[in-house]
Amino acid sequence: MLKRQTYLSMKNLNDARQLFFSKINIDMIREIEVLPVEKTLGRVTAAPVFAKISSPYFHSSAMDGVAVRAESTYGVNERKPKILELGKDAIWVNTGDPMPEGYDSVIMVEKINQIDELHIEIKESVYPWHNVRKVGEDIVATELLFPQNHKLRPYDLGALISAGIFEVKVWKRPKVAIIPTGSELISYKENRIEAGKILEFNSINLSSLTKEAGGIPIVYDIVPDDESKLYSIVKQAVISDAKIIIINAGSSAGSKDYTVHILKSLGEVLVHGINIMPGKPTILATVNGKPVIGNPGYSVSSIISFEQFVMPIIYWLQGIDPPERKKIKVVPTRNIPSKLGMEEFLRVNIGKIRDKYVATPLPRGAGVLTTLIKAEGIIRIDSLSEGISEYEEVEAELLVDEKELINTVVIIGSHDICIDIIADEIRKKDNIRISSSNVGSLSGLIALKKGISHIAGSHLLDLDTGEYNISYVKKYLKGMKVHIFNFVLREQGLIVKKGNPKGIKGIKDLVRQDIKFVNRQPGSGTRVLLDYKLKQINISPKNINGYEHEEFTHMAVAVDVLSGVADCGIGIFAAAKALNLDFIPIGKEQYDLIIPSEFLDDPKIKKILEIIQSPRFKKRVESLGGYDPQNSGKLFFILQ
Amino acid sequence: MLKRQTYLSMKNLNDARQLFFSKINIDMIREIEVLPVEKTLGRVTAAPVFAKISSPYFHSSAMDGVAVRAESTYGVNERKPKILELGKDAIWVNTGDPMPEGYDSVIMVEKINQIDELHIEIKESVYPWHNVRKVGEDIVATELLFPQNHKLRPYDLGALISAGIFEVKVWKRPKVAIIPTGSELISYKENRIEAGKILEFNSINLSSLTKEAGGIPIVYDIVPDDESKLYSIVKQAVISDAKIIIINAGSSAGSKDYTVHILKSLGEVLVHGINIMPGKPTILATVNGKPVIGNPGYSVSSIISFEQFVMPIIYWLQGIDPPERKKIKVVPTRNIPSKLGMEEFLRVNIGKIRDKYVATPLPRGAGVLTTLIKAEGIIRIDSLSEGISEYEEVEAELLVDEKELINTVVIIGSHDICIDIIADEIRKKDNIRISSSNVGSLSGLIALKKGISHIAGSHLLDLDTGEYNISYVKKYLKGMKVHIFNFVLREQGLIVKKGNPKGIKGIKDLVRQDIKFVNRQPGSGTRVLLDYKLKQINISPKNINGYEHEEFTHMAVAVDVLSGVADCGIGIFAAAKALNLDFIPIGKEQYDLIIPSEFLDDPKIKKILEIIQSPRFKKRVESLGGYDPQNSGKLFFILQ
Hey, are the CB atoms on A53 and B256 less than 8 Å from each other? Predict the structure, then answer.
């Protein structure tokens, strides 16, 4: 019979951290090593460092010039110059040279006339020790150079050497054992893709995060779902020199989740289940005083659990506190409900529009790793909160430099892959980021109106005039001044399975009873186009099986077709091509960029317009297939 | 005859940078390499990266539970549960498992009653694709994962793998050739100290800075002062695979500074001499299109020149902009004059006192590396400015995290090595920094009054009462509420050469004509003590040879004695011990910490008091010799 377990009573994040960290004796676990100075960059001192010698170690010339005896210059000035004999009264010295015995000051080269090889003329008097670096000017022997727990920066290393120190006691970088588990996994190291197998990639995330924190990841081979095998591997890891052990995954309550049993039998399970989202199924345990973490399997959960429970320990083992993310105030672009009783880590896009930072939520799935990649920040929604509302100023933790936010152009509206091409082209020479949210054309216009974006991508067809975007802009952006630029003409059509097994020929086939259709949401340009086409040939939506089944992006439609959720959907050629599906064109449509006129002076926006007008961009767009860039960047309409 | 040269007409910093960078063709110099994903952490993409496969790669269960056909659950609810047969109607799945063929949704394990090994009871109906992660939920094949010039973060690597990408095109880390020159140098790699030789440590600074910027330093053996040798080494470096060549030093106008000749004969010297301080003698040249920098010899100059001219190129060669230092507004603690026509990089200590960041200038010498180490920031004083004034708010570039400034306790006053012990002890468990400036006792009290420090260290003897500090505090801190805590009792005395060659026995010998004395500045506790002792035995200062020769720290006095500037000086035992000098005690004195009462609730200040009361601290102080910690941390006096 399969074993099933439920979570121990779930703990909140702070309680879980406090309990877990209180059971770990950092001082007992961490170790010291002695390294030559040149290997200590970024390492942390494990003991105070006192200077062994002074620097300079002897009196030395502070200038290029001649060393003299100060008293031999007394009385000399511009009107009473003096000739000195080289080798007797004066000796050439370069900066840093030891002062010759018996000489106590230096006259700069610029203030000397050389008479001949043996004589110079001076025109000033100097006092003793003038232009001389005395012993200890920089460092005095015995002085404290660095306290313990100081992270060594590049020029700290030079100071160590100049203080006569060639070796430093530093905290050892802690080894972190990472044990991937799961019979369904194949290692990314095999460099291959296999149907029905999942590429194991959490371990590369966890080992990279470990490296970034200064630890040394020890990644084990994938352990299949076999309790006794996992038991022996974990036991082996616990007695190894790893200071922290991570088991990924098997931390939830599934039938093959042995981790909690194993940890109970080897040591003490402190926490199983934490009310954070993502990250809930984390297990926190100690075995022989070592921290052992049952890390969740979903990629985002896995990362958040690592950051909350493993990362701080890695830093503490090196004598320093973990860095804190910068926080800024942001305004959400819409209401964001959240589950009461769970602390949520909501990934958001952030951009600066006029003088406000606006935050648009990204998908919330625990397995959607790309949300972390696309996000500029994380909003943490307290477990006691039911969410945040549209105009409520809240705090966001930044995942990028604040400077990057200022260099971010926010594009909200209909999705098109050509926006990715702008994003790529603009990174070639300029440090500008594109943050794009795909919400459909109409919502893009509304975002402009709400002041939460710089640009809207839109392809809204006026059913009466047959003209794109203008009437919608007039209606929805009333009172605003905007410019409309042509972006691309693109092929819309029906996306069908490879080989078109149902023999679909066009729109009129959508009424066939054997065809399941997938639609786009109202307000999207594609939906408007479909409705226009249906009206032209007098087909009622009621007769289409799946007309109410709506998706929000071209890609989601294509995925539905690929996966058999639907036989046919409406979308652009690029989406069909991406998933290797077939495509039946139904017509070209005009996709434009709508930009408030006030932004046209912004160098970022100028850059974007430059790019879309460039032959290079047009060439790339053309090569995608299904696009016509002939008018890209042309001014189409101005709304005053 | 020795060759002498003068600087080409000096350039200002911006002109020099502009000219130099405009002559370097980054695109021509930089190279691409293809690396396995696991080696790309922190590397920068050299081409856009598009997903090869979708993620998930197949439909998979989003939950632990049973896979079912949605239609077999229709009509089921709490009051109408249904029994399903395992293996036929339902199949156990764990999170991430592929959906079994023919099943389209998942019921969570928590919502299932297991009846026996073959049967389960369900109490809810599900819709198709419920709890299923569809193909491409995270990543859709062909989508842009990263534009070019994207620096890969830890979880970016996981995303690459999950998109089926095992290798990435990244910019090669550029090699930087670093050529140390100078016959007076010995390499730090020899791990030894030699009289009259300078330990070469600029190359460890430059190579560490190179590493930090992502470059690969290639450090050459030290080249002696020999023009033809240097010529052939530089030529060799230029044709090597190094992308940037740094010659350190030989960039100034000294007789052995061949660098500029060599570069003129090999390529084009663009700039020689820049009006920055430190950093003036920098040479900027190109040879065969490669940047070659004649880097100045003084350690701080060398670093500033690197940061201004080399570091940006290293980043650009990797496709990214150099990071910018955070800037904050600070208030200088005193007037800071600066040389007109020179842009100065002034190192400053910064601390937060009440609600202001106050900045205290550190010594300005181009060779005083410890100023960079102790500094929290740099104030750049424009070449058109003659300096900044005491209450003028100016910008400082931060060398530490802003958070660290809040964790910094500013101690201004008399110097004592026991403050270093606090600084070390407080870093053991707490991330608190001590920023201490040594200006003498009285100036320390004035700093408290001006509100630019947290604590003053003081040992001011009242000549009338024989009591320490109280009368001074009453006079100079009138109107403030302060607490005075005993810190240490310490031995003052005369510092003399090792073996006491002049047979000095005590204060009364200071009038001997064969003895050159070195004194401390007025306002220092030590000066007050000396004057008190002189008065006691009726010696007039006029009769002491060197009474007017003043230094600002104990260590400076000791250095004067060591170097023969003086035969004898007044100071504490620790200073004599540091330089291995002899010491003739003249009496114990009381060194106290003066703290405004309002700061006593500050956890940082509490921590300091805790430390100085601890047996551990007292033991360390005692072991130094010349100290008596019996009263350390005792409250001595309160000024209300």
Answer: no
Residue A259 zone, left/alpha/beta (φ > 0; ψ -120 to 50; rest):
alpha
Tell if the CB–CB gap between A188 and B209 is shorter than 8 Å.
no
Q: Which of A208, A252, A578 sits opposite B141 (nearest CB)?
A: A578
Angle ∠(B85,B89,B91) on CA atoms, nearest 5: 90
* Contact in structure between B209 and A154 (CB atoms under 8 Å): yes
B109 min Cα distance to partner chain A (Å): 8
Q: Is the pLDDT of residue A1 over 50?
A: no
Of residues A626, A416, A588, A584, the one with CA closest to residue A497: A584
Other CB atoms within 10 A of residue A521 CB: 15
Q: Least CB-CB distance to A368: which of B137, B209, B579?
A: B137
Angle, helix B615-624 to helix B603-613, in steps of 10 degrees: 60
Q: What is the DSSP string of B339-352?
A: -TTSEEEEEEEEEE
- Domain B60-133 of CATH type 2.170.190.11: yes
End-to-end CA distance of chain B: 73
Beta bridge partners of B177: B218, B245
Question: Which CATH topology does A441-639 take?
Answer: D-Maltodextrin-Binding Protein; domain 2 (3.40.190)
Q: Are strands A283-287 and A290-295 parallel, antiparallel or unpaired?
A: antiparallel
Give the CB-side neighbour count of residue B227, counting CA atoms within 13 A: 13
Helix (H) or strand (E) holding B371: helix B369-374
- At B334 the three-state DSSP class reads coil
Shortest CB distance from A253 goes to which of B59, B64, B161? B64
Contact B184 A145 (CB under 8 A): no
* In A72-152, beta strands by DSSP E: 82-85, 90-93, 105-108, 112-116, 119-122, 132-133, 144-146
**Residue in the structure block whose two tokens are 């009437």:** A471
Nearest-by-CA chain A residue for B187: A161
Contacts of A18 by beta carbon, 8 Å cutoff, 6+ apart: none
* pLDDT tens readout for residues B493-519: 999 999 999 999 999 999 999 999 999
Interface contact B162-A199, CB threshold 8 A: yes
Q: Is the CATH number of domain A32-56+137-171 3.40.50.300?
A: no
Query: Count of CB atoms within 10 A of residue A538's CB?
Result: 7
Cα distances from A51 to residues A57, B388, B496, in angstroms, run: 12, 34, 22
pLDDT, position B228: 93
Let me know: does B373 contact A156? Beta carbons within 8 Å: yes
Give the domain ranges of chain A. 13-28+174-317, 32-56+137-171, 60-133, 327-406, 441-639
Q: Please give the model's pTM, rounded to 2 decimal places.
A: 0.90
Helix (H) or strand (E) holding A203: helix A202-212
**Residue holding tokens 């008091």?**
B609
**Chain B residue whose CA is closest to A417:** B143
What are the CA-CA distances from residue A575 to residues A434, A495, B143, B511 (Å)? 21, 8, 9, 97
pLDDT digits (tens, 9 = 90+) for B40-62: 999 999 999 999 999 988 888 88
Helix (H, G, I), strand (E, B) or coil at A67: strand
Indicate the pairing of strand A455-458 with strand A582-596. Answer: antiparallel
> Could you tell me which CATH number the domain at B326-406 has?
2.40.340.10
Classify strands B387-388 and B327-332 as parallel, antiparallel or unpaired: unpaired
Token pair of A49 as six digits = 């460092």
Q: The complex's ipTM? A: 0.90
Q: Which residue of A has its CA nearest to B401?
A: A323
Q: Which CATH superfamily includes the segment(s) A327-406?
A: MoeA, C-terminal, domain IV (2.40.340.10)
